[in-house]
Specification:
CATH architecture of the domain at 355-493: Sandwich
Helix content: under 10%
CATH class of the domain at 355-493: Mainly Beta
Structural class: mainly beta
Largest sheet: 8 strands, mixed
Distance between the termini: 31 Å
Oligomer: single chain
Radius of gyration: 25 Å
Low-confidence stretches: 1-30, 499-508
CATH superfamily of the domain at 355-493: Cupredoxins -  blue copper proteins
């Protein structure tokens, strides 16, 4: 049985979960614990120690946890656009891990997807320049099959970027006082009170790792940096008193003007910055809530996903699904010295990408896959894939050229909403189900929620970084979907740096290969004192894919590459004659 098959069927045997109907029900429960404000790291060199430990969440029992520079959760990293930074990530666990800088525009070898493993006792030290605009980003593991377990047990932290444009605005920015990060996570606990993975009984709500959190909020304008760090759950955010709030930023940057809202849907991986004016409310208690009863069907957290046989087992037993519940208690206290008391209307001009410069379009379909011959996939529970392929470490799904602008269309053929995240770039949403996106989604984004039987179209540009061997990822940010293979990889290729096929070797062998790129046939045409006797094909990781020996030695060889066993990507062809050999690059699209 393959690893993916085994993982899927293990999930069928659900972890027995205690639902703490009294202690975990947040609909009527008052918060009890002061909100943890993550410590801040600043400078140009950051030491991040991944370690294990335990916490006491319930009834005196210890729960095993993970943390960075502590045994639970992670510090906030604050950097400035234009800074050159080094992040020394030391793995003190007895298992391998990774660390992805979610939303940052960095080179593929610094991005740390599943191809850049940090082994036990090893330290990984990426160095790069901060190129992103001021916004709220985050960092977390991104290992193949290990994202959900490690994030759920504590490995996630904020990464805040500041810049001169944001600094010129009259905004709250005193960290921990009127500028507050909120990492919202739902977690499940088993009957041993350990954090359970990939279950639908995520009834415990944590904010910054604090269960039943409250925050003493000054009676003035407060900036909340919202992150949905949950494995599964989407939140429909609002205030218990019906008060309006103001969105000022999306995933990747400030909006051009503040948007007045009473609700904000935030799916896993998404971030948003909002301002709430508590002036004149000193002494009152307000709750930040999720109005899940208003979520559209199909979103994890709504009252229903799927229909008939295509539903999620145990989904209906989770009392949070489709219910309105409290996330955090806000106790309004006296103003601070020199408070911000007004909300700016104009922010930072937003210049979207120009559709006239688009050179390519591609479509990514979300679908289910059969794992066994007689297995019928569940359109709500999976297993899920993208373009009918489950993630393969040795395959490249898409090849993109440097300095090009593309339009991507995401098509969801399943019955559950999937938050799609792409590494390397920020994008502008063009259409959602053929309609204009809402005002709160018109800024820079790196995550978008794609509804069931719906589609999303976005425009993005690939610039600055190219690598012929190390890929970036795109995937569903429902973490057990990602871990089970709902993910793909893409290379960004700088064609100007590829050696000309006609002049690769200044020897007696002169080779041409065409068409290149191709999706059907590759033809090798050349001349040499000795005819070609062997053709070997390798993927970008150096793994041999196949080889062939022409039945009759010839200077011209054609072979079919349309077989699905040869995924899209870059390949190396080694051509051997009796006296020499030569390697050339070819791309399948």
């Amino acid at each position: 049985m393959s690893t993916s098959v085994r993982k899927y069927y293990i999930k069928k045997f659900k972890i027995k979960v205690l639902i703490y109907l009294v202690s975990l029900t947040s609909i009527d429960m008052f918060a009890q614990n002061p909100l943890n404000i993550p410590p801040v790291l600043t400078g140009s060199s950051f030491n991040l120690k991944i370690q294990s430990g335990s916490q006491n969440f319930y009834s005196g029992k210890n729960t095993p946890t993970l943390g960075i520079n502590s045994v639970w959760m992670a510090p906030t990293i604050i950097v400035y656009k234009g800074d050159s930074v080094t992040l020394n990530v030391k793995n003190t666990l007895n298992i391998k891990t990774t660390m992805h800088w979610h939303g940052l525009h960095v080179a593929a070898f610094n991005d740390d997807g599943p191809h850049q493993i940090i082994q036990p006792s090893a330290t990984w030290s990426p160095s790069f320049k901060i190129r992103n605009n001021a916004a709220t980003y985050w960092y977390h593991p991104h290992g193949a099959g290990q994202t959900d377990p490690q994030v759920s047990k504590g490995l996630s932290g904020f990464l805040i970027v500041k810049d001169s444009q944001e600094a010129a605005l009259n905004l709250p920015r005193t960290y921990g006082i009127d500028d507050i990060p909120l990492n919202i996570q739902s977690k499940a606990f088993d009957d041993l009170q350990q954090i359970a993975i990939a279950t639908e009984s995520d009834t415990a709500i944590f904010i910054n790792g604090t269960l039943h959190a409250y925050f003493n909020s000054p009676a003035q304008v407060i900036r909340f940096r919202l992150l949905n760090g949950s494995s599964l759950r989407t939140y429909n955010l609002g205030l218990s008193n019906g008060q309006k709030f103001y969105q000022i930023a999306t995933d990747g940057g400030m909006l051009d003007s503040s948007i007045v809202l009473t609700r904000l849907i935030l799916s896993p991986g998404e971030r948003a910055e909002i301002l709430i004016n508590f002036a004149g409310l000193s002494g009152q208690t307000i709750y930040l809530k999720s109005y899940a009863s208003e979520l559209p069907k199909g979103i994890y957290g709504a009252n229903q996903i799927g229909m008939g046989k295509d539903t999620i087992a145990e989904y209906g037993t989770n009392f949070l699904n489709g219910s309105d519940f409290n996330l955090m208690e806000l106790r309004i206290v006296a103003q601070t010295t020199n408070p911000i008391t007004t909300v700016p209307t104009a922010l930072i001009p937003f210049i979207p990408l120009n559709k006239n410069f688009v050179t390519n379009s591609r479509t990514i379909e979300f679908d289910t896959i059969r794992l066994l011959q007689n297995d019928l996939p569940n359109l709500s529970e999976g297993p899920f894939a993208m373009n009918k392929r489950s993630f393969d470490m040795d395959s490249i799904n898409e090849v993109i050229y440097l300095n090009t602008t593309e339009i991507w269309t995401l098509v969801n053929n399943t019955l559950v909403a999937h938050p799609f995240h792409i590494h390397d770039v920020q994008f502008n949403i063009i259409k959602k189900n053929g309609m204009e996106p809402s005002s709160s989604e018109k800024g820079w984004k790196d995550v978008v929620l794609v509804m069931p039987k719906d589609s999303v179209k976005f425009i993005t540009r690939f610039e600055d970084f190219a690598n012929n061997k190390v890929p970036y990822m795109y995937h569903c940010h429902l973490l057990h979907h990602e871990d089970d293979g709902m993910m793909g990889s893409f290379l960004v290729i700088d064609t100007a740096r590829l050696t000309s096929i006609k002049n690769i070797q200044k020897s007696t062998m002169k080779i041409e290969a065409f068409p290149n790129p191709s999706n059907n046939i590759w033809t090798i045409d050349g001349s040499a004192p000795n005819k070609i006797i062997l053709v070997e094909v390798f993927n970008i990781l150096g793994k041999s894919i196949f080889s062939l020996s022409p039945s009759q030695q010839s200077n011209k060889i054609s072979f079919n590459i349309s077989n699905e066993e040869l995924p899209c990507g870059m390949y190396f062809l080694k051509l051997t004659s009796l006296t020499t050999s030569q390697t050339i690059h070819l791309i399948k699209i």
